[in-house]
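Work through what follows:
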Amino acid sequence: MTSQPRVLGATIRGRAVMSSKHLPWAFACPLLLGACAGAPPSPDSADDTDVLLMDIVVEKCKVPELQAYFHLASAEFAGSHENLDRLAECLTEGPLKGEQVRLIGHTDPTGSEAFNQKLGLSRAQRVGQYLSKQGVSADRIRYESRGPKEASGDPERYPNERRVDIQILLGRAG
């Protein structure tokens, strides 16, 4: 039986949310700010390993937020690639060298379910292509689309729902 990878945690609203061992697998937080619903676990429940992992991503890799945002109904980036550049460097030459990543595409709820599922996957693939051009091996990248499944239904939040969440799959280095 193969064990599930640990998913690196995040800082959400100033509170530490650690690896998936502190959360059920289905609710494991992607590496980003503000993406997890519900109350995060107490920072007191974190062990030294989890704190070290956050230190690697946030401090040593200089990657405070692992998301890529997109324009409406498009797989074209909206905004800077700076976090992706830093992540690629960390995955190719830094402390996360060799680790695998999972890219999860999201959409707002406008449009059909079929369109949004395809768009979410296209967005994830767009981020994967960008990371590959920066030197991350394509065989270390996994893709998933959640389409509008996690969308809020609040039009003011739609720009933040047009995104790709990036998860680092620890212990799956190739």
In short: The helical segments are 48-60, 82-92, 113-133, 158-161. The first helix runs from residue 48 to 60. The mean pLDDT is 77.
